[in-house]
Amino acid sequence: MTVIVLSGPIGAGKSSLTSILSKYLGTQPFYESVDNNPVLPLFYKDPKKYAFLLQIFFLNTRFHSIKAALTDDNNVLDRSIYEDSLFFHMNADIGRATKEEVATYDELLDSMMKELEHMPKKHPDLLVHIDVSYETMIKRIQKRGREFEQLDYDPTLEDYYKRLLSYYEPWYENYDYSPKIKIDGDKLDFMASEKDRQEVLDTIIAKLKEMDKLPEDWTPSHN
Ligand SMILES: Nc1ncnc2c1ncn2[C@@H]1O[C@H](COP(=O)(O)OP(=O)(O)O)[C@@H](O)[C@H]1O
Ligand SMILES: Nc1nc2c(ncn2[C@H]2C[C@H](O)[C@@H](COP(=O)(O)O)O2)c(=O)[nH]1
């Protein structure tokens, strides 16, 4: 079948769509374990001190999850290793990593990406990118309610989030590990609107059929 990876900024809806899509396709979801990430709250308290450690934590967990996802060939992965570098280099660009840490990170990432080239399935079949505006991102971050991600917790997060969005634009344009589609996360409320959810699913299914990853006559009852 297929390996689909979700991408998108913080709070875009990756985990939510991973769950919806994996149920619809009858495939296995792989979620990013954020809530048992001991470094994440430390990073938001002291980004300069913990940016490198947090990135090594994420890189390690993403490496293992993408390897598992590429092994069983029948799943949906909530975010992937492909965005890891975006986050770290953005933090490095704002002075949160030394040049030695950047060199070490880049070498480690390169070794891991080379390792993936030896996998039976080297890359996902499809990237589903959820595009959101800053306003929607903030609304979703507030809705989800993680204290350390809130602007009240740290007003400088406004610049951080806006910068993150600016890094995602070229990242998506340059992404070429697999075919890709973009979902308008501002317009489509796939959580509250059945119509919007079906529109998102129909878009993804149509792309998979176009890529011959699903038979033309595929329907959810196939599961
Ligand atoms: N398309 C959407 N429309 C409205 N709310 C959404 C949408 N996608 C996600 N949400 C809500 O936004 C919050 C963040 O969603 P989540 O799936 O955790 O995002 P991510 O995994 O990208 O960080 C959650 O409270 C979720 O219910
Ligand atoms: N510094 C980094 N932070 C990251 C990375 N991946 C995710 N995150 C942060 C952003 C959110 O606070 C939280 C969960 O991300 P979601 O996109 O699932 O909301 O973790 C990273 O690689 N580096």
TrEMBL record:
Cited InterPro entries: DCK/DGK, Deoxyribonucleoside_kinase, DNK_dom, P-loop_NTPase
Any Pfam family: dNK
Keywords, ordered alphabetically: ATP-binding, Kinase, Nucleotide-binding, Transferase
Gene Ontology, cellular component aspect: cytoplasm
Domain Deoxynucleoside kinase: 4-204
Active site as annotated: 78
Residues reported in the UniProt entry to bind ATP: 8-16, 140-144, 188-190
SUPFAM superfamilies attached to this UniProt entry: P-loop containing nucleoside triphosphate hydrolases (SSF52540)
Domain of life: Bacteria
Transferase is among the record's keywords: yes
Alphabetized CDD domains for the sequence: dNK (cd01673)
Gene Ontology terms for molecular function: ATP binding; deoxynucleoside kinase activity
Gene3D superfamilies assigned: P-loop containing nucleotide triphosphate hydrolases (3.40.50.300)
Ligand binding (substrate): 32, 44, 55, 79, 84, 149
Family affiliation: Belongs to the DCK/DGK family.
Protein's name in the database: Deoxynucleoside kinase
Organism, as annotated: Lactobacillus mulieris
